[in-house]
Specification:
The chain folds into 3 domains: about 200 residues, NADH-ubiquinone oxidoreductase 51kDa subunit (Rossmann fold, 3-Layer(aba) Sandwich); about 55 residues, no CATH class; about 100 residues, de novo design (two linked rop proteins). The chain is α/β, with parallel strands linked by helices and about 400 residues long. The two termini are about 30 Å apart. α11 runs antiparallel to α14. It is globular and about 65 Å long. The protein is built from 15 helices and 10 strands. The structure holds iron/sulfur cluster. Iron/sulfur cluster binds next to α12 and α14.
Length: about 400
Amino acid sequence: MRASVDEGPRLLAHLADGPGLTRHRLRHPAPVRVGVEHLARAAEAADLRGRGGAGFPFATKLRTAARRGAVVVVNLSEGEPASQKDEVLAMRRPHLILDGAVLAARALGARRVHLVLPGDKPLVTTRMTAALAERESSDGVEWRINTADAGFVSGQSRAVLELMSGRANLPVTAWAPEAVSGHRGRPTLLSNAETYAQLASIWVHGPDPSTMLITRAGDTPAAKVLEVGIGAPWSAVLSPFELDRPVLLGGYHGAWVPGGALKGRRIADEDLAGLGARLGAGVVLPLPSGSCPVNETAQIVSYLAGQSAGRCGPCRFGLPALALAVDDAARGEGPLERIHELAAVVNRRGACAHPDGTVRLVASLQRWFGDEFLLHQRRECGYGDLAAAG
Ligand code: SF4
């Protein structure tokens, strides 16, 4: 595990207890059987939203999936390379995740719970399978393990359902939400690991304080995972220096914002809407010293172009072309109009949201730091010098 961890008020509280079940049960009684509506109201009272990035209200998903043959899926495959919160949660609080999944499964009458584990993080697999062994059969559900491929799009919900059905772990077009028609056409409650951990915590401790896990990188030698109160000021996550620099919010499919625009705003999606940004899976990437937003974006778009599943033409051919256009602009070469043209060609043209997320990132750069492209053309980008002075 590469990230350092700060103790937090809920999910990351009492880390000294360790990951074992015996000490976990001293603070978290075993999940009881509870009705769907009862559990949905508890989730609503805490405004629990999916923590995998989509932010969809959990209570709505739960109610929609509440039909015969429901399946529960816990997604631990963090495809976003900048996010490490689910890995931290699995390593430090595995039973909180499993408690949340059992609560949901019992409410839905689901007999089977699927865990989707990241294939490139063997310690997570070891920890979660050890946690399942501690619980033996006391949960009254059948646990199924699935191992996801490493890859940016492998963790998408439809890619996960493909994996569970024995097909390639890649996204496909879907016409109905998975809560309506998911695994083998059955109603499927598919949520991220933090969402289930939050559910378990809310059930035992009530809705307050409402928190989220953040992975922040930047100038620290390693990423840090911390738990913050939703509505806290951004100074809880970012230093004064970082609040004067560009910040990428929401990960590689997120949006750049000027750090200064975060001053006076809270850590909450409502406060970010006017900036064109969202918290997503809680990835916060302040611009590292010695870098500039154009160069950072060029590197990320190049990475994202390489993560296309290669099935949709606009994604397969358009993203590499877009990456090349941004890279040319970063080197002060190539017309900027080319970026606009290519973004328009790939946006909303894929079977999944991969092209749209990539375009969102580029569009945010143009919105807030468009002048940087011109400075690059004149070879006057000053971020490296500014950073050295800072
Ligand atoms: S849009 Fe790209 S990543 Fe998504 S399914 Fe199509 S080819 Fe794959």
